[in-house]
Amino acid sequence: MQNFPEKPIRIKKARVPHHKNPVISKTPNIYLRILKKLFWNKKFLYLFLFLFLLFIPWVPVLYFGVLVYFPYDETGKNRYTRITGPLIQYVGGEWVSTERIPVACKKAVVIAEDSEFYNHSGISVESIRSSLEYNRKQGRIISGASTISQQFIKNAFLNRKKTYIRKVREAMGAILFNLLFSKDQQLTWYLNVVEFGPRIYGLQAGANSYFKKDASRLNVRECATLIAFLPRPVHFGNSYRNGHTPVAYQRRFQRIYAGLATMPVKKEKEKEKEEIVEEQDEEVD
After folding, report:
1. Chain-centre distance of CA 110, in angstroms?
2. How far is CA 72 from CA 55, 155, 157, 167, 200, in A?
3. pTM of the predicted protein model
4. What are the start-end ranges of the H helices in 215-246?
5. Cα 128 to the chain's mean position, in Å?
6. Where are the alpha helices (DSSP H) in 243-269?
7. pLDDT, tens only, 131-189
8. Which end of the chain, N or C, is surrounded by fewer C-beta atoms within 10 Å?
9. Structure confidence by residue, pLDDT tens digits, 15-67
10. What does the alpha-carbon distance between residue 205 and residue 190 come to, in Å, rounded to a whole number?
11. Contact (Cβ atoms closer than 8 angstroms) between residue 114 and residue 127
């Protein structure tokens, strides 16, 4: 006679997988694991943020209304300290507010330096792509494809060294600049910082130095004259004073001046267009 156990034996059933297809385990990426561990470390995270903020031009300081930067002297090698900004105008500084900058000067900058200024977000991707290809063929950095926003970032926060690191910082600063400030505000900062000749920085200094007048009183021809200096301000500025302007400058001036004559003008600015027509009639006579 067989002896049966007092309690029945329970046989465990095999668990049926939830997924029809078998799940194949993947080995986690070693680099991803390292990054996760590093960023979970607060000390590393704080250090990373600190270095990141140092790398990006600190554009938000412009909200304080004062900018301390270091432009170059007439040699293009040594730098000195210059202070500008909206608050400076209250203590006799050379700052021209948005309302006092002639519309012709703003349009001249767009014509000469960045025709797509109102359409991009601080940088021109297509221009950068073309510039990289051109530099690769030449074997060195020649073309920078800088927008007005990038030029301001370079002048206010960086230096003139042609390196790809500087270009990356410049591009990141330009994007941030475009996010924080309107296009009109960007033009105002640019025209108050840009160089117009040896130790001549800002539109007010340019108007005083070359035409002995306030920047708000510059006419169309004078705006075109100043903006035409921008690619080589020291060389073109000195040549203009001596009365022997290079052919390259003359062509640049004519292109800007002709562009101002053909651009649409608002009703309250019709006087500027009339000035161009009168000056052209005088030249014909």
Report:
1. 13
2. 22, 9, 12, 19, 10
3. 0.75
4. 220-227, 233-242
5. 13
6. 247-262
7. 666 566 666 555 556 899 999 999 999 988 888 888 889 999 999 999 999 999 999 99
8. N
9. 655 555 555 545 457 767 766 666 667 777 777 677 777 788 889 999 999 99
10. 14
11. no
